[in-house]
Design brief:
single chain; about 300 residues; alpha+beta; paralog of FGE (formylglycine-generating enzyme); four-stranded mixed sheet; 15 strands; globular
Length: about 300
């Protein structure tokens, strides 16, 4: 547990890059994007131009997270604890790849060709925001299709079109953890990855200030005390032992699990730039309507290791 290695998947999967190449339908760096917004390996499509990932901070990477057991939730003594954080033993039974950073504005645009950010002045390497849970599903399915993988979700009763303000669906069917495409992490996967083998409120130590500046959070997360009222480019704070950045703070992250039996609400984990330290703890759980959009909520894809 704790051992991981990095898999780089810029633009398309490494395994597919050789097959796709840079021929017809694939744009060269600095030139127009090819068919379906495709660019050569190492570039992404930004406003119809193929730009190198280096301009986006080069953060389109995934870490392999090995299976293991851990204690989910928080002890009764943890500062800022809520009643929905009851401790229980959980086990991640299969390995999965998790994106090292939250999805950025550039990455979102390269797939959808639309923007969805509350802080456009933050720049292309900042996390995407203001997406509802359904829009995230559409993004993950599109990302899977682009990389030649099987979409993990099928939806029904949808209104509007993906990336539109009114997009929402009546129901969703999840293909399960055997799906080879991109998906939301489960709550168990998310917290296991966020803790990275630690048992404290933050992966750098215990929380000492429920509000105000907390020394253990300062170097790892953007939160209300250090964010200056905005998101920040991904990957600027200290990663955890699994090599994951911004798991605590910057933007909250939609996960797979429904809050209620009808699935109208979903959990958001990790806290954000506008939250106090207590809301950025690894055990902190929030739930929002699947239809709502917030300037402090984005997403981080995972992919089962098959």
């Amino acid at each position: 547990m704790g051992n991981s290695f990095r898999i780089r998947w810029p633009g398309t999967l490494v395994l597919l890059a050789a097959a796709i190449g840079c021929g017809p339908g694939v744009g060269d760096e600095g030139g127009a994007c090819g068919l379906d917004g495709r660019c050569e390996y190492g570039s992404v499509c930004v406003f119809e131009i193929c730009e190198p990932l280096a301009s986006n901070g080069g953060h389109n990477t995934y870490e392999l997270i090995s299976p293991g057991a851990f204690t989910m939730g928080s002890p009764a003594s943890e500062l800022g604890r809520l009643d929905n954080e009851e401790q229980r033993q959980e086990r991640v039974t299969r390995a999965f790849y998790m994106k090292t950073t939250e999805v950025t504005q550039t990455e979102w645009r390269s797939v959808t060709h639309y923007g969805r950010e509350a802080f456009s002045m933050c720049g292309p390497a900042c996390p995407i925001q203001e997406i509802n849970w359904w829009e995230g599903v559409a993004y993950l399915n599109e990302l899977s299709a682009r990389d030649g993988l099987s979409p993990c979700y099928s939806t029904s009763g949808c209104q509007g079109s993906p990336w539109s303000e009114d997009y929402r669906c009546a129901s969703v069917t999840f293909a399960g953890l055997d799906c080879d495409g991109y998906r939301y992490p489960t709550e168990v996967e998310w917290e296991y990855a966020a803790r990275a083998g630690t048992t404290t409120a933050f992966y750098t130590g215990d929380i000492t200030h429920a509000t105000g500046s907390d020394p253990a959070l300062e170097d790892v997360g953007w939160y209300i005390e250090n964010s200056d009222g905005s998101t920040h480019p991904v990957g600027q704070r200290q990663p955890n032992a699994f090599g994951l950045y911004d798991m605590l703070g910057n933007v909250g992250e939609w996960v797979h699990d429904p809050y209620d039996s009808d699935g109208d609400s979903r959990y958001v984990r990790g806290g954000s730039w506008e939250d106090p330290a207590r809301r950025c703890r690894a055990a902190s759980r929030n739930a929002w309507s699947s239809d709502w959009r917030f300037g402090d909520v984005g997403l981080r894809p995972v992919k089962s290791a098959l």
